Amino acid sequence: IIMAKEEWAKKLYWASVKYRILSIDGMSAMVEVENISDIPFIVRKSANEKITLPAKKIIRTKFTAPGTVTIENIYIGHKQNLVLDLPTE
């Protein structure tokens, strides 16, 4: 679990995780996600779906485009998780 000011939490996440869009089909995108850090990140993609980005691994997954995700193991306030907009390019 990470606790930080929002600006630092965003910098940490974007320095650790790289997204590469492989294809877009309507409102969803197949994305390759690389976590170059030693920290696994728990990403809530929707109300019913979350994934773990394992440390030092690459995974492929679908995301709704455009969209936001919640990083469940990064807190920026009391019971407030980091929420990020996904890259569109």
Structure report:
The protein has 89 residues and is mainly beta. The protein has one helix at residues 6-16, and strands at 2-3, 17-25, 28-35, 41-46, 49-53, 57-64, 68-77, 80-85. A hairpin with a 2-residue loop joins strand 7 and strand 8 (80-85). The protein is globular, with a radius of gyration of 13 Å.
Individual helix count: 1
If you compute it from the alpha carbons, what radius of gyration comes out, rounded to the nearest whole angstrom?
Answer: 13 Å
- Overall morphology: globular
Summarize the biggest pleated sheet. Answer: 5 strands, mixed
Strand content: over 45%
Number of E strands: 8
Structural class: mainly beta
Q: Give the SSE order as H and E letters.
A: EHEEEEEEE
In short:
The protein is mainly β and 89 residues long. 12% of the residues lie in helices and 61% in strands. A hairpin with a 2-residue loop joins strand 7 (68-77) and strand 8.
